[in-house]
Amino acid sequence: MLAGVKVKDGLYTTEREVKLCDKLRALELLGKHLGMFTENVAFKGMIPVTIIDDIGAEVQNGADG
Prior knowledge:
Blueprint: E1 2-9, E2 14-20, H1 23-34, H2 55-64
Antiparallel strand pairs: 1-2
């Protein structure tokens, strides 16, 4: 993706200056347009959480042997 091109012709040389678009900014704007990035996230409802304590057993077995 080119933003612009400048060509300077000299007697023995030709200079070309190529300016590229900012790809990260373009992707950021596209993501915002599609609603991929949200500043505020709201969760509704109850989500069950299960806590599994399997690390304690590994630590105890590792310390014994």
